[in-house]
Recover the amino acids of this structure.
């Protein structure tokens, strides 16, 4: 079980059995991980705090901030899950240290793209989701190497916590994507595919609509796409004008994203755009087991 699967199962248990069972499950299984990210620690101290385990919550927090030297966005410490810790001096100390590190990191954070030079006639550019990074993307998408495409990754400048990044709904994502595309010989590739997970999908769609970014296909996995709530018609027209083929993959149990996907799919069908939609039974906000097969069928079907 990798980190994403572990945290997703923890979230399921919160809804099924409550925070205490979810906390006990996470504590029992964290040692199967090679390392614990700032997100794992966030789950640990939040779940401990909401399970009346204040002392354990503070120990996890101190391990993250003091021992591991991690940090978080200041908003993290305003979470109501941490209300029971707010007045503790240890909590205040960790919060202050974290904010100082965050502000320092914010000043120097830059968009990171793995592209160095052109090595194929086809290019796939992958955008991570929130609380992720390029390394996390590579774990899932690396199977595409050797499939006649050059696979590269784009990491946001918008920081979330230590070594994890995010794409804000109305943030600078489209600008970052456009500037990256302008710097990597994008138009010299015959076949260009943009791929995103979760919030990365919203950046792709905003970039196509607002920055006239052009490609042959887009792959949207577990797409968090609030863009469909406003001016969706302008998005549809941009996709139609540039003849962009769309693949949407979403879990039927993905409560946050499923409704948005349905709205988007309906609009695409109404405008007779080329859309392929897969709703995966029993899947939450995650990749399906046959993800590799789905993607390969989509990118190779015209070859």
């Amino acid at each position: 079980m990798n980190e994403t699967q572990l945290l997703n199962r923890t979230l399921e248990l919160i809804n099924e059995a409550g925070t205490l069972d979810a906390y006990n499950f996470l504590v029992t299984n964290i040692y199967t991980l090679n390392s614990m990210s700032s997100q794992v620690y966030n789950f640990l101290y939040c779940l401990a705090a909401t399970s009346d385990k204040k002392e354990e919550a503070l120990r996890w927090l101190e391990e993250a901030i003091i021992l591991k030297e991690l940090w978080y966005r200041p908003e993290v410490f305003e979470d109501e899950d941490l209300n029971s810790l707010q007045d503790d001096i240890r909590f205040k100390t960790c919060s202050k240290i974290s904010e100082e590190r965050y502000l320092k990191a914010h000043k120097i954070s830059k968009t990171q793209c793995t592209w160095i030079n052109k090595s194929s006639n086809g290019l796939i550019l992958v955008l991570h989701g929130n609380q992720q990074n390029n390394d996390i993307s590579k774990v899932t998408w690396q199977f595409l190497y050797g499939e006649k495409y050059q696979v590269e990754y784009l990491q946001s400048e918008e920081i979330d916590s230590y070594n994890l990044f995010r794409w804000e709904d109305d943030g600078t994502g489209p600008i970052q994507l456009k500037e990256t595309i302008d710097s990597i010989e994008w138009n010299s590739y015959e076949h260009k595919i943009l791929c995103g997970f979760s919030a990365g999908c919203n950046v792709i769609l905003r970039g196509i609509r607002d920055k006239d970014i052009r490609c042959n296909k887009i792959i949207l996995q577990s797409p968090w796409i609030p863009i469909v709530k406003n001016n969706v018609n302008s998005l549809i027209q941009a996709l139609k004008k540039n003849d962009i083929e769309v693949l949407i993959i979403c879990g039927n149990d993905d409560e946050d994203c499923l409704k948005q996907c349905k709205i988007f799919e309906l609009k695409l069908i109404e405008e007779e755009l080329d859309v392929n939609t897969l709703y995966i039974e029993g899947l939450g906000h995650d990749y399906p087991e046959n993800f590799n097969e789905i993607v390969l069928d989509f990118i190779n079907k015209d070859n």
